[in-house]
Amino acid sequence: MNRPLEGVTVLDLTRVLAGPFATMMLSDLGARVIKVENPSGGDDSRAFAPMVNGESAYFMSINRGKESVAINLKHPEGKKLLLELVKKVDVLVENFKPGTMEKLGLGYPVLSGVNPRLIYAASSGFGQYGPYSHLPAYDLIIQGMGGLQSITGPDEEHPTKVGSSMADILAGIFTVIGILGALRARDITGQGQMVDVAMLDCLVATLENAIARYVVTGNVPKPAGNDHPSIAPFATFESSDGFVNIAAGNDALWAKLCSVLGMEEFVQDPRFLTNSDRIRNWPELKAAINERTRTRSTAHWVEVLREANVPCGPINTVDKVVSDPHVLARDMIVSLVHPVAGELKVPGVPIKFSKTPGEIKGPAPLLGEHTGKVLGEFLSMGEEEIQELKRQGVLG
Amino acid sequence: MNRPLEGVTVLDLTRVLAGPFATMMLSDLGARVIKVENPSGGDDSRAFAPMVNGESAYFMSINRGKESVAINLKHPEGKKLLLELVKKVDVLVENFKPGTMEKLGLGYPVLSGVNPRLIYAASSGFGQYGPYSHLPAYDLIIQGMGGLQSITGPDEEHPTKVGSSMADILAGIFTVIGILGALRARDITGQGQMVDVAMLDCLVATLENAIARYVVTGNVPKPAGNDHPSIAPFATFESSDGFVNIAAGNDALWAKLCSVLGMEEFVQDPRFLTNSDRIRNWPELKAAINERTRTRSTAHWVEVLREANVPCGPINTVDKVVSDPHVLARDMIVSLVHPVAGELKVPGVPIKFSKTPGEIKGPAPLLGEHTGKVLGEFLSMGEEEIQELKRQGVLG
């Protein structure tokens, strides 16, 4: 066995982000992922800029290692083909608005009727039930409703969304956990089941100490910029060419930091003796540290603070991240060769298995690239039949 | 079978956040999680404020449903006991700085020697190998180095960390995926393995289109506040009592929005005809929309925009999140009763399985609450022997 999900076949009806991110991870872990796309354009994100030779970089980065079969699910023949495919797979994943699969006549009860072993995973903004389940959801809307935006930002007047689509991504990751859990249950019971993951639920589940703090103290957590609420100095400081993060979490690190910054006199200063003192006089202390850190570059401070074992680091922009020696040493940036777009760098697999490592299987598929191959292999359909269905608009 | 991870036993050496978050999820999914803590104080986060009757709300919220066994791993007898326990479990999870388990004489090669079926999962800031693996890591440092801070914030001058400890949480979640993948591999091969998850890798893997955009265009992504880079209006606006997020992703929604806001004349305005026009004249348009939205409350706008099917939502603070009817309808806030702290509300399980639902098994354990029970059950140790080891400082 080479991959953790070897032998698992996934029918992937997902589009855009949360769903494709989930099935990308399943592919990276060794599952065979067959992406079912509508023949007229496919996954919406195939049209998202920026493009390389007409191919979307966004689409290519999160659909690597999948096969593409173009089937028109609104056509009765298309539905029939999907039901036949469902009989042969282990998992189906979709991230439509709840009710869409039912309208297509392809809801979970129908699919589990033809394959009781099927694991049906649905990822959506608000989930399959609950008063908001019918509402449209975008990452911004969910970051706002889920509390994350209310605790991120420079101050109370500026709640700020996370720069990546974190609600989508968290839903994608939790969907993978749901599928893996359901696969384990099925291995034991022989029965598939439905897995319902909502972006909003995922945000609530990851609010972390914000919920614990609120329910116990009644204080509503607010955006706190880059400052730690209860440890100082533990924040972002300014350098001559950018910023440096410093986390001096105890008195010993505080003393070391003062020594590196050439502000030894602060260690004995009664305003900054203990962590509570430093929190109480934080604006003053922050200004004093910034005055020092602004005199030299980020690279300088990171070098000398690391030598002194004070936890620190730069704020890397994306260009720095993708060329960082540690990131590269851990294969977290991988090159793919796409038949049309050429070479493309994408993030690697963030789980390092010692015996069954994950692997990026290959580039993203062209729309319908594997229609003939998959329908031939799974449903024994011949080339002529497939061509006829393409003429009828059932396949692409 | 009632839970996906029924029958799986986890030895949990984790502390603080990333590791405990992972083992909390394993417990919620049905695994039996035995937390091994040092008898002198246990998990550091037991001391994190705020406290309820001397018990940390933070600790209680992410250690629910676990058992606690207090063993001094620096004592030769403690090491022996751990090795005996390792023989009886499926999974061991730790989030020490790399090298710590080796120094204790409990590295993976030793543990897999006594139990080749063991899955050993290690979660750390930089991972078990690579040039930075020895560096100290905190969430802030990793958010900075992993690029997330560089794309979050109101503008380029103010890169901002995410308000929750997202690097820790992502590492915890990916660790769960690693364990589930390794369990599946073990079910087939009979062999355990090591799973290495680094917070930094997890951030790189979730940078999403920031990497695709940069590698293709060479443009370095910057913090963009709450504005969408390529769709307008798709942003946070001001209301009379706060904010409202509005995502009018196409021309039809734009027209509906104008109608709800009473600014119908904008629809035919050549400055705002198409999405490209609206992006080009965004500062002007944003100001005009804010002028309208500031006249009424968030609740008003959410109500009328939802009626018009324009995607929208409030920025909920944590008090609003924990009392939201949808959040409650999906059991995403659950009450636990702790023997010392009393009732505590914690986030629920964000994966809804139709047949083997997750479940919060119970409150967090007191330090060493299950020492006698677990050592009796797993190692057939008697009460007298346990008391003697407690006297010697081996157990707590």
UniProtKB/TrEMBL annotation, chains A, B:
Protein name as it appears in the record: Putative acyl-CoA transferase/carnitine dehydratase
InterPro entries: CoA-transferase_III_domain, CoA-Trfase_fam_III, CoA-Trfase_III_dom3_sf, CoA-Trfase_III_dom_1_sf
Stored Pfam families: CoA_transf_3
One GO MF term attached to the UniProt entry: CoA-transferase activity
Keyword Transferase attached: yes
Domain of life: Bacteria
Keywords annotated in UniProt: Transferase
Ranges in a coiled coil: none
Lipid biosynthesis found in the keyword field: no
